[in-house]
Amino acid sequence: MLNMRLLLKLGGIAATSRSTRVFYDRISPFYELLFTDHLSHIRTMVAVMGEEFPHGIKVLDIACGTGALSRRLEERGFCVTGVDFSFQSLRRLKQATNSIRVIQADAATLPFGSASFDVVTCMGAWRHFPVPEVVLHEICRVLRRDGIFFVGYFPPKLGGLLSVPRGPLGEAIVFFYGCVMRLLKYNDRTDPEMESQTLQMIELAFTKYRRIQSGKEAEYLIVADSPRLGLELR
Ligand SMILES: C[S@@+](CC[C@H](N)C(=O)[O-])C[C@H]1O[C@@H](n2cnc3c(N)ncnc32)[C@H](O)[C@@H]1O
Question: What is the C-alpha separation between 193 and 172, in angstroms, rounded?
């Protein structure tokens, strides 16, 4: 059950922040109280990674926010670096644990050398990237030659919170939401094409990929393996 008081606060912040980064800075104190749908996907991702990778491997968690995924990966024994452009979210993550390296940066310009990480993760943030091809290009660059990219999930709910009916009414709501987002200067997509478009990009950028069912509906995580070197995605 959504907390009405927090929901109203969220609405006020959404109406006045005028940028995705400022929005996440301002909601960081209660982000993890409101946005809980993705926790089951985080559990799936951490469980799969725990089974497949040895302790100590280097993981980059892109758009890590307050660290809902990063903290669990670190608890599992991985050496985690978190990147986000929201300073306040990173501050909260740092307050929760000191053993995760955090860096404030845009996902489109990752401040790391080539082949620096064994695994890159990105949870619930793909919908915010204005040009996801550029982010994917950066991910391929910072991953080792046989590195793995985990991405999940693509929220079927508006803003990650509100369910939308199927059919023409749902399409109209998503369209209207897109217009409001543009008006308020946010990057946030909820259209059904986002998932298939991302898969197409991943197919081009990686040697292979698989999908892992995660969640009650047709929700899944994408695991992509071995970036194709030198691929020009931009
Ligand atoms: C829905 S939250 C997800 C946070 C975290 N991954 C989780 O699972 O709880 C989206 C995050 O993406 C970050 N973000 C959005 N666009 C970004 C960008 N271009 N570069 C870096 N971070 C970005 C926001 O600041 C926010 O923390």
Answer: 15
Please determine, looking at this structure, whether the domain spanning 4-227 carries the CATH number 3.40.50.150: yes
Q: Name the residue with the closest Cα to ligand 1, atom 13.
A: 63
CA-CA distance, 188 to 193, in Å (whole number)? 13
Amino acid letter for position 187:
N
- Ligand 1 site-directed mutation target among 13, 19, 20, 81, most atoms within 8 Å of CB: 20
Alpha helices in 120-234, H assignment, sequence order: 132-142, 168-183, 193-205
Where helices occur in 18-148 by DSSP H, the ranges are: 20-27, 31-34, 39-52, 68-75, 87-96, 132-142
| pLDDT higher than threshold 70 for residue 232 | no
Q: Please give the model's pTM, rounded to 2 decimal places.
A: 0.92
Which tokens go with 67? 């660290």
